[in-house]
Amino acid sequence: MTSILKVDSIQNAAGTAAMTIDSGGKVTGSVNDSRQCAMGFMRTAGLSGNADPVSGFTNIATQLSGDSAGQITRGGSVTDSSGTFSFPFTGLWSVEFCTSISAGAQDDTIQVDILTTTDNSSYSSFVQAKGGAGSANRKECITLKGLFNVTNTSNDKVRFKISSNSGTAEGETGTAMTYCIFTWLGDAD
Predict the structure, then answer these.
(1) In terms of Cα–Cα distance, which of 112, 109, 106, 110 is closest to 125?
(2) Ordered alpha helix ranges (H), the chain
(3) Nearest to 186 by CA among 32, 12, 76
(4) Residue ranges of the chain assigned to CATH 2.60.120.40
(5) The CATH number of 33-186 is which of 3.40.50.2000, 3.40.50.460, 2.60.120.40, 1.10.340.30?
(6) Complete DSSP assignment for 4-50
(7) Distance between alpha carbon 93 and the CA centroid of its chain, in Å?
(8) Which of 156, 164, 176, 174 is nearest to 95 (CA)?
(9) Could you report the per-residue pLDDT of 130-140, keeping only the tens digit for each?
């Protein structure tokens, strides 16, 4: 004898449907709607030389709203305080930093770092990349991405650092040329 278990929904601890299955077998699930965040920040002006931290960011969704830029901020927003970014809730975050650079001189090396702290004071390089230029006025793009496990929203923070002799991290008001993106991926293992 074969037994068939028919399930049309799975409930969470509160007794509400967290997942439903229709008669055709289509599964519809609900993520944690109270905690979702995807936000971007950009610089609207270029930055020459060294910066630690890189500051002067503005919200991409606000700055480029006419270009349909958006964000998700259910449960809280990533905040920027003079180039130091704080997280609204714990979990695994994707942190991305991208800059379009213009070399000011031949053989100019530009180093870009994502810096993290777990004690709200001592920062260390989490992800790093270097770009170089064979001639003056050469342009290239450097993109860094890392996964940061935020376990304490008061102490776990992110900054960005640029080291350059004469290069420029480009920025303008109508296009994200030097920017960062934060995406909450879920609760970490």
Answers:
(1) 112
(2) 60-63
(3) 32
(4) 33-186
(5) 2.60.120.40
(6) ----SEEE-TTSSEEEEE-TT--EEE---TTSEEEEEEEESS-EES-
(7) 7
(8) 156
(9) 876 666 677 88
Beta bridge partners of 79: 86
Residue 140 C-alpha from the chain's centroid? 21
* 81 close to 154: Cβ distance less than 8 angstroms: no
Contacts 24+ apart (CB under 8 A), 28-33: 32/186, 33/74
- Residue 189: pLDDT above 90? no
Q: Inform me whether the pLDDT recorded for 18 exceeds 80.
A: no
pLDDT band at 65 (very low <50, low <70, confident <90, very high): confident
Please give the Cα distance from 42 to 111 (Å, whole number).
18
Over 80: is that where the pLDDT of 22 sits? no
Contacts of 175 (CB under 8 A, 6+ apart): 64
CB contact at 8 A, 165 and 132? no
